[in-house]
Amino acid sequence: MELSGGEILVECLKAEGVDTVFGYPGGAVLHIYDALFQQEQVQHVLVRHEQGAVHMADGFARATGKPGVVLVTSGPGATNAVTGIATAHMDSIPLVVFTGQVHSALIGNDAFQEVDNVGITRPCVKHNFMVKDVRDMAETIKKAFYVATTGRPGPVVVDIPKDVTDPKVKVPFSYPEKVAMRSYQPTEKGHSGQIRKAVDMIVNAERPMIYTGGGVILGRAGDELTHFTRKLGYPIVNTLMGLGAYPSSDKQFLGMLGMHGTYEANMGMHHCDVLIAIGARFDDRVTGDLSKFCPYAKIVHVDIDPSSISKNVVVDVPIVGAVKSVLTEMIDLVNQAGGAKKPKELESWWDRIEQWRGMKSLEYKWSDDIIKPQYVVQKLWEVTGGDAFVTSDVGQHQMWAAQYYGFNKPHRWINSGGLGTMGFGLPAALGAKWAFPDEEVACVTGEGSIQMCSQEMSTALQYQLPVKIVSLNNGYLGMVRQWQEFFYSGRYAMSYMDSLPDFVKLAESYGHVGMRIDKPSDVEGALREAFAMKDRLVFMDFQTDPEENVYPMVPAGAGLNEMILL
Amino acid sequence: MRHIISILMENEAGALSRVAGLFSARGYNIESLCVAPTHDDSLSRLTLVTSGDEFVIEQIVKQLNKLIDVVKVQDMADTAHIERELMLIKLQAHDNMREEVYRLAEIFRGQIIDVTESSYTVQLVGPGSKLDAFIDALGSVPVVEIVRSGALGVARGPRGMLVPEV
Ligand SMILES: Cc1ncc(C[n+]2csc(CCOP(=O)(O)OP(=O)(O)O)c2C)c(N)n1
Ligand SMILES: [Mg+2]
Questions:
Q1: DSSP string across B39-78
Q2: How far apart are CA B66 and CA B20, in angstroms?
Q3: Which residue from A1, A12, A135, B34 could staple onto A141, CB 3.0 to 4.6 Å apart?
Q4: Residues 6+ apart with CB under 8 A from B129
């Protein structure tokens, strides 16, 4: 079969089982768009800004576990995509991003819409390629999907000069069945000696703590984690990225840890004697001051990425491997050992934990007059049966969503944890809704963040993606304001959001439904009404308490045991 | 501590920038970096000299291994090895200085590879420390320029750096 570069690209997508490309056209990718136009199997979602395309593909990937695919043009198309690519990179999300490039003969000439895509994206991708010859197209794409989805996943950029997709140049095509790369061979199976050593330490723990992150979700190991944790009867905490891997309604779950984690989670971390870290990377928002981190603990760390191990915190038993495979082996060994060996000590450990839990660190002051943002999230949970896909933007609302929407399943909580990208929430929600049209998808956002990608409401109309936008409108860049209140004596420099649009009219102008809610007594009714409109996007503009703060909090430079409580 | 790290990479465009970019992005220091083809034209070999405590070096090795195009990384400090560096050093050599420079070059087993009425250029090979010692020994001889290749390292014994099978 003889095909052009554009046709080859499309055939490769089909061979990879890709059903959707999120993108935006331009000169350098016109040949590819022409090839897409002439077939029906691979659909294309036209966004309104390339950042939106990448976040949409990212939301799709996080919701499904499948790689998200993006197509953008050269120059500004590619630079607009960079924030999205960096967002996916920080959270290890598998994406394949095709960027157009100017004609090969023009590269390096400062040609119209030329930028060095490979150079610009190099520090924020797992890997990138430039296809220099149409004969290399199929193999490069095969490698791109392989690299993006295996090992520790991540975004891969494939840069394609315009002449490489020239419809007049046809070459024989066959999609490679396998890839083998001598330079890239991720470790799946953990070292059995290390696993044995770890399990011995784990079953003999007196004050154990299981600490898990996004790696468990990416590695689809939620069931194994739940089984392992229940079998041992140990307390478990999740990072912001790891929520949903273990059912949050379970007694053994102590909540999220870290800067805005619960008191019991952070105190449990601080006082444990064996820390079992799984698919987590000891991020600075999690550890607090490193010199005060888990001072009494021996640490086991399971991670697929060797460079995550002993990067921030030196660990005692490192295990490199896929969390699913390692947990499966660990469960066997725990069973052989007859489970936990120190039931008495464990009982008194749980007594201490229950005392910490008794502090009720997530309680907030109720008001009859003004809507508390936490209450909105709690009602959102009730109205959606705790089972919606919830995306968020970045700020206080993100923390409240993480704290008060108890996730019971993996893949349902979708947020930009690593890069903290405002503007992520709405396009990510659209990507999730595209993948799961019959499921409820809510985007918890703020009046600041939503304005960074609100143009995607237009995409939502075009493709009938009736997500529900839950905007916690406090009139402030709340997270910035909170830091200014705490650490800058209340000097609110540039954190007040002035001249806001009328969000109800904004939503209506895009053909959607808008609601403005300003009384606590109306919150639940509004949510019920909105979710009853199955096929409409509803923008709920909740007027929330402007100066509400996120508690509890570990201030910068403090240890996890030095929390500020309300 | 100073470490010589040898890297085998796929001989692809941009390989060098991936390594250099990694070092600058993560704030690791590079004392020298040397890149050239090998007998296998699908590979290129980079040798870099860096310094840091054991944790930094461990991270450097891991981060290098994480680069998709990196085939193999070896910290030379982990094995018995030989270090060599080439230096071309141009010195002012007038009248009575000529004798002095000639004598020093002899002692260090250097070769004089270019001569003018007022200068000698000396070629010297050895571990970096030997080249440093030569520069120290020059005392008051004025240096015009120094060109150093950066250190190379090779493990002692019959075996080469292993390329993993696919
Ligand atoms: C693109 C981007 N720019 C700036 C920031 C810094 N930042 C973090 S939270 C925040 C405020 C967000 O305000 P809003 O969306 O209203 O959420 P709130 O904190 O009020 O809930 C800002 C500006 C960021 N995370 N992302
Ligand atoms: Mg706000």
A1: SSTTEEEEEEEEE--HHHHHHHHHHHHHSTTEEEEEEGGG
A2: 14
A3: A12
A4: none
Within 8 A by CB and 6+ apart from A409, the residues are A222, A244, A247, A387
What residue has token string 């009248």? B95
**Could you tell me if the CB of A260 is within 6 A of ligand 1?**
no
Judged by DSSP in three states, A336 sits in helix
* Residues with Cβ within 8 Å of residue A403, at least 6 apart in sequence: A255, A256, A260, A262, A362, A374, A377, A550
Q: What is the gyration radius of the CA atoms in chain B, in angstroms?
A: 19
CA A149 from centre of chain: 15
Q: Are A327 and A225 in contact (CB under 8 A)?
A: yes
> Residue A528, SS3?
helix
Distance of CA A542 from the midpoint of ligand 1 (Å): 17
> For residue A527, how many C-alpha atoms fall within 13 Å in the half-sphere facing its CB?
25
Contact B66 A306 (CB under 8 A): yes
Mutate to test the interface with B, among A140, A142, A307 (most CBs of B within 10 A): A307
Handedness of CA B94, B100, B105, B106 (dihedral sign): positive
Q: What is the pTM of this model?
A: 0.97
Residue given tokens 């008194």 in the structure block: A348
Probe residue for ligand 1, chosen from A54, A391, A449, A547 as the CB with the greatest number of ligand atoms within 8 Å: A449
- Residue A554, token pair as written in the block: 């570990």
Tell me how far the alpha carbon of residue A519 is from its chain's centroid.
32
Residue with tokens 């639940």: A524
Q: Is A550 in the pocket of ligand 1 (CB under 6 A)?
A: no
For residues A158 and B48, give the distance between their C-alpha atoms in angstroms, rounded to a whole number.
29
> Looking at this protein, which amino acid is placed at residue A365?
K
pLDDT tens, N- to C-terminus, chain A (566 residues)? 899 999 999 999 999 999 999 999 999 999 999 999 999 999 999 999 999 999 999 999 999 999 999 999 999 999 999 999 999 999 999 999 999 999 999 999 999 999 999 999 999 999 999 999 999 999 999 999 999 999 999 999 999 999 999 999 999 999 999 999 999 999 999 999 999 999 999 999 999 999 999 999 999 999 999 999 999 999 999 999 999 999 999 999 999 999 999 999 999 999 999 999 999 999 999 999 999 999 999 999 999 999 999 999 999 999 999 999 999 999 999 999 999 999 999 999 999 999 999 999 999 999 999 999 999 999 999 999 999 999 999 999 999 999 999 999 999 999 999 999 999 999 999 999 999 999 999 999 999 999 999 999 999 999 999 999 999 999 999 999 999 999 999 999 999 999 999 999 999 999 999 999 999 999 999 999 999 999 999 999 999 999 999 999 999 889 999 999 98
Cβ atoms of residues A219 and A227 within 8 Å = no
The 10 Å Cβ neighbour count of residue B82 is: 11
Biggest alpha carbon–alpha carbon distance for chain A: 76
